[in-house]
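Minutes, structural biology subgroup

Action item carried over from last meeting: produce the structure token record for Ribonuclease J (Methanotorris formicicus Mc-S-70). EB confirmed the sequence was re-checked against the source entry. Recorded below for completeness.
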Amino acid sequence: MQLEVIAIGGYEEVGRNMTAVNVDGEIVIFDMGIRLDRVMIHEDTDISKMHSLNLIEMGVIPNDTVMKHVEGEVKAIVLTHGHLDHIGAITKLAHRYNAPIIGTPYTLELVKREILSEKKFDVRNPLVTLNPGETKDLTPNLSLEFIRATHSIPDSVFAALHTPYGAILYANDFKFDNFPVVGERPDYRALKRLGKNGVICMISESTRVDHEGKTPSEIIAANLLKNDLLGTDNEGKGVVVTTFSSHIARIKSITEIAVKMDRIPILLGRSMMKYCGIAEDIGIVEFPEGTRMYGDPSAIDSALRTIAKEGKENYLLIVTGHQGEEGAVLSRMATNKTPYQFEKHDQVVFSADPIPNPINAAQRYMLESRLKLLGVRVFKGAHVSGHAAKEDHRDMIRWINAEHIIPSHGDFNLTASYTKLAEEEGYRLGEDVHLLRNGQCLSFERII
Ligand SMILES: [Zn+2]
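Output recorded by EB:
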């Protein structure tokens, strides 16, 4: 028996996730993501034109050269959801493997867009759709099951690889949301069944494990938004909300509140148009009638011109730029680079937490300061995370009852916090909960 887990990326950072599992020479890769804060420090670089080896050196994509030392053949590349830290390196690495890319419909549509915008490599791996709740044979010995999860992007799954020795569960990323605004609640029954049948190893995210308690449902974010938007005297004023473009559930809530306010929801921004357009096209979401979206900067400016002319009190704008990113719609609006003029008592709602790194903090500070100088009323806090908190993880650990656990999706602080939690549940570091660094491999033949 040969069974090994190779930690390729995402074990020393939040970003560039990639893990390989080798079962008797048949390899399955989970995720191929980028690290966004490393992209940001190299501004003016067009990643689409860059070679993978340069990007590996810059720490932007996973260093998959470790795969050269792994004996076996890659049979599938499996994607759990469409966030860029999980799919963003597909265009740079997937062509090196003669294997299909398997994902849910929304994830694969996003992958197609990534491939279309790639200028350096020609990615021709077949794209194979697998829906949540379905199982697919990869080889006579291996099958892949997608179990419905909830996260901050639609169509997210847990991936269970069934092997002759038991299952390997890849749980990156998830929260347990019993009142999701888009899609259904997680498939708890499938998770518990998996645990009963025997899981050799669970690879779990650890991004929010050091937060006590349970991550609130998306319905709470919808209520916080209602509180900010319906509970404030914004009559006759401009109202702008900014959030993650891929957070379709959040955007749906905002558009529905706009209708309650008798305002037309307008989605503005290139990525807003991409993520929301695809979600609507494939039937994941239905925005209220009359919702409009614009992605191209000139189309955005012309829409803003019309809005300014017709009276901004008739509209609710949902825009990109919640981190203060230069060039995003909100920053352009705040610096008077669009035909929309902010005025005293206009309302801007940030429905996203700042991503904790100094670049983001500085950009977001500048944006908020600019808005306040213009007399804009700034609202923050209408947000809930898409990642499981400590007590969610505890439930997961108990249900899955894995023989071994590998925490991932975070630096040492986070994976160590997860390890502490696993120890509370009876695991022991180095025996059955394992801390891996990028490039390290854990072989189970010695342990089991
Ligand atoms: Zn994610």
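Discussion: The longest strand covers residues 3-9.
Next step: EB to file the record with the rest of the batch.
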